[in-house]
Design goal:
Chain lengths: 113, 113
């Protein structure tokens, strides 16, 4: 069966520090991969999605970047965190193609102080 | 489009009653819709989906209704239980072929004992 792993679960980072959040999927090949951010009590904002290795689409210009170095690995990064980067970050995957549901990881709660 | 920056509306329902959560979607060309449940501090979980060639689909205690004429989607939960308390999101697949999901604002369901 397919599983998605996202870590760490919580993270407190100072302003100006770098960030690296990792997401890996097991049990499937060639997944679509997604990074979402969710502010407290709010909806899901799509940050990046990828349909293949090295293929990254950015939805919102911002202080973050994403990379997909391997088929089932998706990394969210920042060189210098801002206070406004605080939030709940969710990784998700879906079967390549359309018309199927996305499966979410358990999220990373990032607090920038 | 995606709903971010909006506070979640709340639906309060007495335990044992039926709940109806509504969602308006944006694109008449969308052909796949999903309902997710998100408990506090966790990633969204898939509940049920429906394709545009259907008007209704039933699961265990849940029913999704699709009205394509008015671009409206609803989730009905029968005999609501305390464990149903969560935020519920509808999502549609992006019909333009980008493999993205467009999420609704979300509704917080509170089950009253």
């Amino acid at each position: 069966s397919q599983t998605i792993h996202q870590w760490p679960a919580t993270l407190v980072q100072p302003v100006g520090s770098p960030l690296s959040l990792e997401c890996t999927v097991e049990g499937t090949s060639n997944p679509n991969l997604y990074w979402y951010r969710q502010a407290a009590g709010r909806g899901l904002q799509l940050l990046f999605y990828s349909v293949g290795i090295g293929q990254i689409s950015s939805e919102v210009p911002q202080n973050l970047s994403a990379s997909r170095p391997q088929d089932r690995q998706f990394i969210l990064s920042s060189k210098k965190l801002l206070l406004s980067d605080s939030g709940f970050y969710l990784c998700a995957w879906s079967v390549l193609g359309q018309g199927t549901e996305a499966f979410f990881g358990q999220g990373t709660r990032l607090t920038v102080v | 489009g995606e709903s971010v920056g909006l506070h979640l509306p709340t639906l309060s329902v007495q335990e044992g009653d039926n709940s109806i959560i509504n969602c308006a979607y944006s694109n008449s060309a969308s052909d796949y819709f999903i309902w997710y449940k998100q408990e506090s501090g966790k990633g969204p979980q898939f509940i049920i989906d429906i394709r545009s060639n259907m008007d209704k689909r039933q699961g265990q205690r849940v029913t999704v209704l699709l009205n394509k004429t008015v671009k409206h989607l609803s989730l009905q939960i029968a005999a609501t239980q305390p464990g149903d308390s969560a935020v519920y999101f509808c999502a549609e697949d992006d019909p333009s072929g980008t493999y993205k999901y467009i999420f609704g604002t979300g509704t917080r369901l509170k089950v009253l004992a």
